[in-house]
Design brief:
This protein is α+β, with helices and mostly antiparallel strands. 24% of the residues lie in helices and 47% in strands.
Length: 192
C-alpha cells in the first residue's frame, strides 16, 4: 500500500513528467489528426471522381439504327425509256433510343450525292422508336427494282440536359442489286 499515491499528493517529479508528456503529446496528436484529415480528403476526392465517372456513364445517350434498311419503290415511267426505267425511291430505317436518358438528334442522309438534312432537333425518349423515311430520290435503272449506290446516315445526338457533350453515329451502306450491305459504322464523341 505504500506505492499508492493519493490524487491530492503530487510530487515534483510527477508534475514535470505529466507536463512533459502533455507538451509532447499535443503536437503528436495534432500531426496525427492532420494526417488523418489529409487521408480522408484524398479518399473523398477519389470517391468523388468515381461518382462523377459513374454519373457521366449513366447519362450518356445511346441511339441505334436497326439493321434492316428498306427501300420504297415508286415506278414513275413504266416503259423503259432508252433502256432505263425511272423510279422514285425513298430509304426507310428505324431509329431507337436504347439508352436511359431522353436524347435529341439531328440527321443527314446522303444517297448517291443527294442529301436529306433534318437540322431541327428531334427528341427520342428511352425505348422510343421513330421510323425515318427520306424524301424520294430519282433513280434510272435498266432492271426493275435494282438499286445500286451508297447511302450515308450521319446523326449528331446529345442528352437533353447536357447540350455541351455531343456524340455522332455514322453508318455507310452499299446497295448492290437492291440489297443493302453495311460497309462501315462509326460512333463517338464529337470534337469541338
Amino acid at each position: 500500500m505504500i506505492f499508492l499515491l493519493s490524487l491530492n499528493e503530487t510530487s515534483p517529479t510527477n508534475d514535470s513528467l505529466l507536463q512533459s508528456i502533455s507538451t509532447l503529446s499535443i503536437p503528436v496528436l495534432t500531426a496525427v489528426l492532420v494526417g488523418v484529415t489529409i487521408w480522408y480528403a484524398w479518399k473523398t476526392q477519389i470517391m468523388a471522381r468515381i461518382m462523377e465517372k459513374q454519373y457521366n456513364l449513366a447519362v450518356i445517350p445511346y441511339i441505334s439504327i436497326e439493321n434492316d434498311i428498306k427501300v420504297n419503290w415508286n415506278l414513275i415511267q413504266p416503259t423503259p425509256k432508252d433502256g432505263n426505267y425511272l423510279y422514285k425511291v425513298s430509304i426507310c430505317f428505324l431509329l431507337k433510343n436504347i439508352g436511359t436518358v431522353p436524347l435529341s438528334y439531328t440527321l443527314i442522309n446522303i444517297f448517291n450525292n443527294q442529301t436529306t438534312n433534318i437540322p431541327e432537333a428531334q427528341i427520342l425518349f428511352p425505348g422510343q422508336e421513330r421510323l425515318f423515311q427520306t424524301p424520294e430520290y430519282s433513280i434510272e435503272t435498266e432492271i426493275k427494282e435494282k438499286l445500286d449506290g451508297e447511302s450515308i446516315i450521319s446523326i449528331h445526338y446529345w442528352a437533353l440536359d447536357i447540350h455541351e457533350r455531343k456524340y455522332f453515329y455514322k453508318r455507310t451502306s452499299q446497295f448492290q442489286d437492291g440489297t443493302c450491305i453495311i460497309k462501315n459504322e462509326d460512333t463517338g464523341l464529337c470534337k469541338v
